[in-house]
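Holo prediction. Input below; ligand is MU-OXO-diiron.
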Amino acid sequence: MAVTEIKKGVYWVGAVDWNIRSFHGPTFTTPYGTTYNSYLIVDEQITLVDAVYTPFAQELIDHIAEIIDPTTIDNVVVNHIETDHAGALPNIMALNPGARMFATNNAKVGLAKHFDQDWDITVVKSGDTLKTGKYTLSFLEAPMLHWPDSMFTYIGELKLLMPNDAFGQHYASNFRFDDQVNFNHVMDEARKYYANILNPFSKLVLKKLAEVESLGLEIDMIAPSHGIIWRQNPDKILQAYSGWAKGESAKKVVILYDTMWESTTKLAKAFMEGITEAGVEAALYQVSKTDHNDILTDVINASAVLIGSSTVNNNILPSLSPILDELVGLKAPGKIGLAFGSQGWAGGAVKTIEQRLTEAGVEMHGPAFVVKWLPNGEELQRAKELGKEIAMQVVHS
Ligand code: FEO
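Structure of the complex:
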């Protein structure tokens, strides 16, 4: 993919990973691939901001070689030590053994454990700067956005923010900028990224956004470490992050369930009927048939979540366990919840669902809705009424 000058003297030299379909092990599906963005600042001193995932190391070096001799790098800024951004550091440092590295203290500790190399690492804190010639790189620590070592790098002269994972998206493209691609699609992927990675750290996101504002940083381009660079709409992604971090949610209900013999499906559809009669948008997912990250994204952005399961071995169906585990980790405070399901001689599924929803911070609407074996007409009518009741609560929330 072509090297791109994103600002005067600043080049995208990263890699596009068209074929990755699962990130962070099995936890994040990436149907549109991703990119590992690395930026080369050509000034009196040459500075590389972040590297790429290890298998793309040669691609990074080849891209750098299109602009400068890749053995002439003076500084390497490590905004984040996760392998997708630091994996190629040994390759870069092998070519530039005298280069100075700049990273947070947490990153320095992590780099030692990851690479066991004797690199010349300068620990930086928020407010520290690096003058490279006509440009000044300012560092802003961003712990837990999303690792303890995370950091943003800002170039005031260019109004350019390089915040690593923050504001990124898993979105491979032959283009680099938001005005060159389907903007709504990129925003959807940014929302998925936020919901599935940053949502547990929303309070810290709000604090960081406030800090950026209080510092008066002028930003007209945000160049994250994954996906598309925001040059036309940096304000839109900043505003979107603010809303997501505040937990602003759509007036929408998400119903997710799994079933053995369709009794729970019937209940899910009855809830849906009631919600629809109340004029509220709803989505329905059978979890074993749907991408779990898409479901979680929808849940995080909805006002209410109804989760149903048949009971098997006194518990939920196994297909629901991963998504409930992830929801507990991602957190979903301020939402209305309800557990429902069918059971035979023994119950247990709804108890697990209620417990997990409560752990995720969801407020239960009321007692779980359970039927024995198959729901009859009266029970389906009650489910419909309950759906309507929850929808009205969503409207007035
Ligand atoms: Fe936290 Fe893109 O790595």
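The chain has two domains: 4-245, 254-392. That is the main takeaway for now.
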